[in-house]
């Protein structure tokens, strides 16, 4: 794999482009805004999303998708979940055939309940054997700084996963392969909701035991949903599951956790969104789509329900933990 196109130049798109360039790939990054393209091509910095991080010379930017994907041996989708369908409608006729399509977004589509690989399959008309999902404890800024992390690359075609593993591995980014795409995607979407809950607990001054309880019970409800959808339980005990939950629920760098802190401090949804400088906190929408999936499959998801109530029905964040504590006692 020589040339890779990355479509989407936010925190993770830019960071993953850097990972690929540092792994020896020639990378073209597509950005919507010409200022971002200019900053990357002249200063080798994405000032809007990764201030202070110097990008390699083998990473260049363009605002023309056709230029980005021309001759690419793989294409990475790095836009927020809820915009993927709309973007794919524009991109699909330009995409090279036969190359791997790599999905970075951690969310489930609202309204349809589709995972991102399903949106790619149905809207982009891409064969699932070509769709590779990257997920794990991957806070963008830490990785951009070259701090070591592990991740999973998931594809139903193991050889395709190995190709992406080899193309992205470098001295600070260690990918493991799995074939459980459903598990990787549900874990990635679900952990953002639990991070919102942990952020609210943090904002309320609740400490380690509360956080650990939310992470552990959160893992349980995400795992049960994933298994009902056809995922393997083992995936949730791995990097995409507990690994990403620990990173996201514990780190002040997480936009979802920070969003939860802001809600607990009394901000409404719009104010908390505005305070996030336009960066996406996927859990705010995924609590709706995963809750709906849970209802469809008969899966009880109390933390997701409580986060949904805070976000959309004015449940005070202080009531989130109280309402969970008041639930009927059950075996673990
Ligand atoms: N930032 C991280 O640490 C991280 C790590 C792993 C996965 N992810 C996931 O990757 C995905 C992208 O996250 P990010 O951190 O890069 O987000 P971001 O908010 O930093 O950037 C989003 C990018 O998408 C663009 N964008 C927004 N709406 C768009 C639209 N309608 N059409 C086209 N482009 C649009 C923005 O201009 C920006 O370039 C999310 O699903 C996120 O959960 C993020
Ligand atoms: O900043 P967040 O909350 O979107 O989380 C980023 C990554 O998904 C962590 O793996």
Automatic annotation (TrEMBL):
Keyword Oxidoreductase part of the UniProt annotation: yes
Source species, domain of life: Bacteria
Residue ranges constituting the Glycerol-3-phosphate dehydrogenase NAD-dependent N-terminal domain according to the UniProt record: 4-159
Subcellular location: Cytoplasm
Residues forming the catalytic site: 191 (proton acceptor)
Pathway participation: Membrane lipid metabolism; glycerophospholipid metabolism
Positions with a binding annotation for substrate: 106, 255-256
Binding site for NAD(+): 8-13, 140, 255
Plastid among keywords: no
Reactions catalysed according to its record: sn-glycerol 3-phosphate + NADP(+) = dihydroxyacetone phosphate + NADPH + H(+); sn-glycerol 3-phosphate + NAD(+) = dihydroxyacetone phosphate + NADH + H(+)
Single GO BP term: carbohydrate metabolic process
Enzyme's top EC category: oxidoreductase
GO MF entries: glycerol-3-phosphate dehydrogenase (NAD+) activity; glycerol-3-phosphate dehydrogenase (NADP+) activity; NAD binding
EC numbers for this chain: 1.1.1.94
Residues involved in sn-glycerol 3-phosphate binding: 106, 136, 191, 244, 254-256
Domain Glycerol-3-phosphate dehydrogenase NAD-dependent C-terminal: 180-321
A Pfam match: NAD_Gly3P_dh_C
Amino-acid positions noted as binding NADPH in the UniProt annotation, renumbered to this chain: 11-12, 32-33, 49, 106, 140, 255, 280, 282
An annotated GO cellular component: cytosol
Family named by the database record: Belongs to the NAD-dependent glycerol-3-phosphate dehydrogenase family.
Described purpose of this protein according to its UniProt entry: Catalyzes the reduction of the glycolytic intermediate dihydroxyacetone phosphate (DHAP) to sn-glycerol 3-phosphate (G3P), the key precursor for phospholipid synthesis.
Name this protein carries in UniProt: Glycerol-3-phosphate dehydrogenase [NAD(P)+]
Organism (species): Nakamurella antarctica
């Amino acid at each position: 794999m020589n040339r890779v196109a990355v479509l989407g130049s936010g925190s993770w798109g830019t960071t993953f482009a850097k990972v690929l360039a540092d792994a020896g790939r020639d990378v073209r990054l597509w950005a919507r805004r010409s200022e971002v393209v200019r900053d990357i091509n002249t200063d080798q910095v994405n000032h809007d999303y990764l201030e202070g991080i110097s990008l390699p010379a083998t990473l260049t930017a363009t605002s023309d998708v056709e230029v980005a994907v021309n001759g690419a041996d793989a294409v990475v989708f790095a836009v927020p979940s809820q915009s993927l369908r709309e973007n794919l409608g524009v991109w699909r006729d330009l995409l090279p055939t036969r190359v791997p399509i790599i999905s970075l977004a951690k969310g489930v589509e609202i309204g349809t309940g589709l995972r991102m690989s399903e949106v790619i399959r149905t809207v982009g008309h891409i064969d699932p054997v070509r769709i590779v999902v990257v997920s794990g404890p991957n806070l963008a800024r830490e990785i951009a700084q070259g701090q070591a992390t592990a991740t999973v690359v998931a594809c139903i075609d193991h050889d395709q996963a190995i190709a992406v593993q080899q193309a992205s591995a470098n001295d600070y980014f260690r990918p493991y392969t799995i074939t459980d795409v459903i598990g990787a995607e549900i874990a990635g979407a679900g952990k953002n909701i639990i991070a919102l809950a942990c952020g609210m607990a943090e904002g309320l001054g609740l400490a380690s035991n509360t956080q650990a309880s939310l992470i552990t019970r959160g893992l349980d409800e995400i795992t049960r949903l994933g298994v009902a959808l056809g995922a393997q339980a083992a995936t949730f005990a791995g990097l995409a599951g507990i690994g990403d939950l620990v990173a996201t629920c514990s780190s002040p760098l997480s936009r979802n956790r920070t969003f939860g802190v802001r809600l607990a401090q009394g901000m409404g949804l719009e104010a908390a969104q505005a305070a996030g400088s336009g960066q996406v906190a996927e859990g705010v929408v995924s609590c709706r789509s995963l809750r709906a999936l849970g209802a469809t499959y008969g899966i009880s998801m109390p933390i997701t329900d409580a986060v949904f109530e805070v976000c959309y029905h004015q449940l005070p964040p202080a009531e989130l933990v109280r309402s969970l504590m008041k639930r009927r006692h059950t075996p673990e």
